[in-house]
Amino acid sequence: MEWENGEITPEPLSIIGADDPVACAIYARDNNLLDTPGWKRFKSIAKREKKLLRMINQAKLRSFRTAPKYMYGYEIPKDYNDGLRLDKLHGNTKWADATKVEMDQLAEYKVFIDLGKGTPIPKGFQKI
Fold first, then answer.
1. Closest to 44 in 3D by CA, of 14, 21, 11, 15
2. CA 30 – CA 118 distance, rounded (Å)
3. Is the dihedral of CA 41, 43, 46, 51 positive or negative?
4. What residues have CB less than 8 Å from 70, skipping those under 6 apart?
5. Per-residue pLDDT for the chain (128 aa), expressed as one digit of tens each?
6. Residue range of the domain that includes 117
7. I need a labelling partner for 104 at 20 to 30 A (CA). Which of 41, 44, 52, 78 fits?
8. pTM, full prediction
9. 40 contact partners, CB below 8 Å, separation of at least 6
10. Same structural domain for residues 127 and 74?
11. Would you say 17 and 24 are in contact if contact means Cβ atoms under 8 Å apart?
12. What pairs with residue 2 in β-bridges?
């Protein structure tokens, strides 16, 4: 198994197969390993071409959703906690500062006004 940092380590097929059976089935099919002991359990996955293609596409979507996104060479956080993680990683407070400025702007422009419980809906607004 080759890791992101370039390190190559041997990993048991049982662990890799449990984590990503679709990739193992594709590898076994492409390298004619489906009749080899240890690889036979992927034969049923690789045998059904249409289902295999659907599973491949789902695996691609899953990795796309979880992959980090970059804009102009900088990683974009997925949520507030991810922004704090990036700040800690880079040793600065840029995401925290940006969040503070944004929240201060919301407060300055009085975007959210609590009218209290039981107050009638103002004219020109609707309940959502």
1. 21
2. 66
3. negative
4. 76
5. 787 788 898 989 988 888 888 888 888 989 999 999 989 988 888 888 788 788 888 888 887 788 899 999 999 999 999 999 999 999 999 999 999 999 999 999 988 888 888 888 888 888 88
6. 69-128
7. 78
8. 0.48
9. 34
10. yes
11. yes
12. 8
